[in-house]
Amino acid sequence: MTAPPPDEPMTAPPPERPMTAPPPDEPMTAPPAAGVAVGCHRLIHIYPTSTGDVVALSGVDLQISPGEMLALVGPSGSGKSTLVAILGGLMQPSAGRVYVGDHELSRLSAKGLAALRGATVGTVLQGAERNLLPYVSLSRNVWLAQRPAARLAGRRLDPPEAILDLVGLAGAGARRVGDLTPGQRQRAALAQGLAAGPGLLLVDEPTSQLDASGRDEVLAALATVNAERGTTVVVVTHDSEVGARLGRAVTIRDGRVGAEGRNGRDFAVVAGDGTIQLPPETLATFPAGTMFEVDHTDQSITLRAVASPSSGEEAAARENGRAG
Length: 324
Ligand SMILES: Nc1ncnc2c1ncn2[C@@H]1O[C@H](COP(=O)(O)OP(=O)(O)OP(=O)(O)O)[C@@H](O)[C@H]1O
Description:
This protein is of the alpha/beta class and 324 residues long. The chain has 9 helices and 13 strands. Residues 41-279 form the ABC transporter domain.
């Protein structure tokens, strides 16, 4: 990233200092952006409102390995955006711990969070246009997004053209957002999120307004980023196909991890407090308050319903009687 792209208007402000000069002890080549690990432990987030507190996250336990790709899926209002905003350093959780790489985010100051946003985490907001300036070229968009990282990390970054190439937009640097197809626009937004060479890329609903071929292009771009840079990728999506294609899909339900899908198979997940969420269709048959006998072996757990909520007292009395 030596100079602003050549096609830019003369009014573009010059960088305050050369962005190419790394500190003397830094290598002159860009280090590969290795993916970072993410960890959430009993993560809780509450929004205080004038009508009372809204519990958005109620104890999320989640581990993501460096370089992993996963989808966060779940119904509207389940807490996906809140989780991503916390992972992206946009807000602090109410309680619990969250790690991004070596950083425990609740310990970071506002300045520390800004540094995280600038150099470690790239966030792509829902709606490609929200991430891009319409009146400058794609190269210039990426270059502008690199400025905070170059200042914060003092490291050399890839030229904008290389980042555009990575997302399948080679040779499109001089174009503007208005010239692009929806799929290209979304990939330009990815390039913006990747500008600083983040170890974690968070992408909100990248395929929601795309047809099948646009969706394929975006998924291919994410796969390339992940394979070539090792970047950890987290995608929020309502599209179960996207979840299936990323290999790992974590379902957020009622503010916690409700289930997980891996390579086409669905699994229940034991939370840090020992609870397991029943899928909605199971809950319809066995509503809250149903009493079960629990048997387990090393390999399996068997739940045998002994009483519905309405007959709970009666069943408990029967069980007590049997015990006595
Ligand atoms: N700023 C806020 N103030 C108050 N409540 C909020 C705020 N943001 C989100 N919420 C509430 O927190 C809960 C989780 O919302 P969140 O947006 O994280 O869910 P989501 O799964 O991302 O939903 P969607 O898929 O619709 O974007 C919801 O009940 C929502 O109404």
